[in-house]
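Thread: adenosine-5'-triphosphate complex, take 2
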Amino acid sequence: MTKGKRTLDAVEEDRGPNEAGPDPSAPITRRGVLTSFLTGKPMEIPEQDLLGRCRFVSEFEKLNRIGEGTYGIVYRARDTKTDKVVALKKVRMEHEKDGLPVSGLREISVLLGCRHENIVHLKEVVVGRSLESIFLAMEYCEQDLASLLDNMQAPFSESQVKCIMLQVLRGLRYLHRNFVVHRDLKVSNLLMTDKGCVKIADFGLARWFGLPLRPMTPRVVTLWYRAPELLLQARTQTTSVDMWAAGCILGELLGHRPLLPGRTELGQLELIVDLLGTPSDAIWPEFSSLPALQSFTLKQQPYNNLKQRFPWLSAAGLRLLNFLFMYDPKKRATAEECLQSSYFKEAPLPCDPKLMPTFPQHRNLKTKAPANPPPAPTQETTTGNNTADPSLHLPAISDLLGSLVKKRRIE
Ligand SMILES: Nc1ncnc2c1ncn2[C@@H]1O[C@H](COP(=O)(O)OP(=O)(O)OP(=O)(O)O)[C@@H](O)[C@H]1O
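Output below.
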């Protein structure tokens, strides 16, 4: 039984035997109890919150489009009920004949179970005119690190880099302790609020893991941040793929440019070998039996060039990078181990997030319309006039997920 299923079961049980589901005309007064994906313990859902009926997207006023990824378009929007600004991510449904895409289900189910200051907070799931038009209303973060890095006048100082990395590592420690592997960590998936709080976002590829480790598709994680075991098609993967990506992010922040910007999988492997030397069975016992190595051999390069790449970095900083770039995933640093690193305890010390500089909101300045603009979220429901009619059955998130999971099960 998957963890996702457990929660859906819990929601069904919570209704009680005589309750057929939400009464569409009843006011939302009930407090719900949902079994946490993470702890397995019941967690209380506040009134009108996630177990309440999903609101319609027409209750949000679209302000501007702030991002578009593989799995969805993201808008800055104002919740007309609370007047709060949120990020509204429309789950991409293109080519989905069979219900909600798995990435959308994963993102919703993982984020619903997460509560940590360094993980983006999913406030609620909002529906469009049809049940299958779904938006995630998330806390709004003013920046993403990728566009910030592209637009900053001066690079982050080392103490700012440490402040960012500490927060990323705390978020990762929380996820990994709770058996979630993110699998797509990169600078564009790191958001930052105007208070300097860094949040890990985009859980479209996230998975729960457990023992025994089950095979997962190796073609995850954006190439530049992809761990060698994924590039070499290892059949199992662990939280260590996120730690490799964290190493790439640390290198990128310190070096002010992507650390390993490969164009192809083979090119990516070559960049890794150029930087770290060729792995061997001596340092990584499973190395020569990895599937990809049955058809080709890696070039020989005997040197670790991290010190040449970062000549100004302290011994503690180099130790941390080397620990994150252990070829053998079993030996690679965990988030907890990184947080203990003396690098974060030596000068220059990490700055206080509240003292991080504020930056112009580049994403909101973008005015260029896309070639084929997708429908704005507010247009989704303007013809439906749904919110005005109290007798309409507004789907509860449990119903929504339940009906969609019937069609598509999380892998
Ligand atoms: N909560 C948020 N607050 C502010 N901006 C956000 C938020 N969530 C996402 N964004 C912006 O939207 C962009 C795309 O979002 P996201 O990464 O979740 O989409 P995706 O389709 O899963 O992307 P990818 O192609 O990277 O997998 C982000 O890089 C960021 O700029």
